[in-house]
Structures are given as C-alpha cells and as structure tokens.
Known about the structure:
This protein has helices spanning about 1-20, 105-110, 210, 305-310; strands spanning about 25, 50-65, 70-90, 95, 100-105, 115-125, 130-135, 140-145, 150-155, 165-170, 180-200, 200-205, 215-230, 230-235, 240-245, 255-260, 265-275, 280-295, 300-305, 315-335, 340-345, 355-360, 370-390. The protein is mainly beta. The strands form three sheets. It has a 15-stranded antiparallel beta sheet that branches. A four-stranded antiparallel beta sheet has the order 5-10-7-8, with no helix packed on it. The longest helix is centred in the first third of the chain and has 20 residues, at about 1-20. The chain is rod-shaped, with a radius of gyration of 43 Å. Residues about 15-45 have low confidence and may be disordered.
Amino acid sequence: MDFARVLVVAIxxxxxxLLIFGGELEFEPDPEEDPxxxxxxxxxxxxxxxxxxxxxxxxxxxxxxxxxxxxLSFEERTEILGELDEADVRxxxxxxxxxxxxxxxxGEEVERVRSLAVDFDVAETNQLNTLRMLFxxxxxxxxxxxxxxxxxxxxxxxxxxxxxxxxxxxxxSGWRFWAPTVYVLGDIExxxxxxxxxxxxxxxxxxxxxxxxxxxGRLVLRPDRFVPNEPLFIEVNGQRVYGQRTEMPDRRSLxxxxxxxxxxxxxxxIRMFTEEGGLYSFDRATMVVFWESLEEKRPVRYIDVSxxxxxxxxxxxxxxxxxxxxYPEHLTLKLTTADDEERELMxxxxxxxxxxxxxxxxxxxxxxxxxxxxxxxxxEGGYYLSDFKVSF
Length: 392
C-alpha cells in the first residue's frame, strides 16, 4: 500500500514536471547524449546567433613572388656611351676630312653618369699639324699626338646631354698643299662611370572578382641585409606605395601593406628599388591579396521531434531579428521533414530590427524524427537572427 502511494506521488510529480518544462524544445540537444546520432553531420557550436542572406566577406590568397634571394642596390661601372672603330682624319689645301661620332642618352641615363672621358689610339700620323677634338662644340684636346700611343682625356660632366656629338679634325698643313695633315685613329670611345641601379620587378595576376573587389595587398619580405642610407621604394602598377629608409625589422619578416591602388584583372607589376647609397637584400618575397567576396549564407537548423512532441503539435518556431543588412527580400524557411517531404514557410513582409518572429508549425510541416530547416533570403543583404527556439 505504501509503495502504491509513493508510485502515485511520483507519477503526479513527473506529470507536473512535464507541464512545466515539456512545452518548449531546444532545437539542438546536447550532442554528448547521443554521439552516434551526429556521426554524419557536424554540430553547429554557435547556434545562438546567425546570419541569413548575402554578405560581403573578406577572402584572401597567398602567392610567392620570389623564392630566391635578391638585392636592391646601386653599382658603379664603366660603360661605353659611344664608339668608332676607326677615324682617318685629313686636312690640307685641297681636302678636309673630319670624323663625327653621335650618340643619344635618356634623361635617366644622363643622371646616372658620374664621370666622362674620351679614349683613342693613334695608328698613323705625319704630324704636319695638330689633332683637334670637340665634344658638344667644346674643345677638350689639341696637340701633336704620337703614332703608336693611346690617349685618354677627361671631359666636363656638365657637357653631357641627351644628344651628344664628338668631332675629330686636324689642323691644316698650310702651304704644303701637296701633303695634308693625317691622323689615323682607332678604338675611339666615349666612356662614363655609370651608377647601375639593381632593382626587382614581380608580376602577379588577379581574376575579375579579385580585381574589382580588391581590399588590400600585403608584401611579406624576409630581410637579409639592409644599408638604409637611402629609402626603399616600392611601386604597384607605377603607383608609389612605400618610400622610406627602412631598418632591419625585429621579427623575421617585413610587412608592407597597400590599399588605395588601381589593380587590373590579369597581370599586375610590383617594382622595388633604392637610390645611390642604399642597399636592401632579401631572402624571399611573398604576397597576400585580400578582396571582398559576396557570400550567400543559408544556415541550417535541425528540429528533432519525438512521438509525444508530435502529438502535441501545432507548435511555434520563434527567433529574434537582431539587425538588417542591405536590402533583403522575403525570408523563406525551407523544411525537409524526416520523411524527406519538402515544405516552405514564407514571411512575405520585410523583417524589422528588434522584432520577435513567430511561425506556426503543424503536423503537416513536421514528422517524427529529424527535420531539416534551411533559412533563405533573396535580394541584396540579409538578417542577423538569434534566440531560435521550437516550442510544442
């Protein structure tokens, strides 16, 4: 008899607990209660807040620019700016045969020349008069050059221009009209000590989406040795993105980021260089490209319905609208029942931030077992949702 009373009391208490707690069902039970059940689908660990719709998210890609060491510096070396293999110069009463050498330079090449000279060999001469040389109309040599000798004469660097002329002539033999002054020269060279810039260029390619939605590029340079007497310059598609004296970084890599740069679909160029007195050597160069990509978020929630819960239907799906992004259209909840039948629950009006949404569900919408619920939003933008619950 006492056992019967205890049993009745236990049944009454159990019924009371069902009335208090059984009316509301959290849509994701504790996965540890039934680990085998979740073997074939991942469990969403952040189920409280989620976004549905289209949103721009940052994507990125790594690329190797150079896996080998390279150096940015200046090197001074002697270069031949203009030359003649031979010049047979004669001048007398009846003949005048000068020789000319013309050569052209760019403005940048002129700036890089640090000294200027003319070198020549004398193969033959009768020395009836002097040998004369002019550079851009300025005489820099006149004398009785000896056969079999080599000569070198420095020139004033200020004489150097983009377009240059070397004139070689001889003085007249005068009254010796039958014998002109003769100088046969060989290997005539105009030379200069030129600062040679050692720079580096890299190419990288972007597709249409990456180019149109470019956010930022990050150069990751592994330094070897720096002599920062002059700035390190970096250009992207001809646009300066960096230019300053740079000390060796404390960490293993030097990061240089650039944002407001016009990039192209297809090939793009990075140019790195320094000025005279600077030296920057690197072991490796890579780059990370960041761009915005339109992502469609269609989150899925699972509703597990027991037989007792199914008998208590109809019920409610509720959630809160925490925010509105852009211009989303109607929200559709696509239901796939445990029996693989498809249903659609649509909210045709725009959702408003802060409101609590309630959607009725019946036995026609759910089956006993695992029901799949997918959130879909049209238009441009979406909704931030939270506090999702299913109540029976």
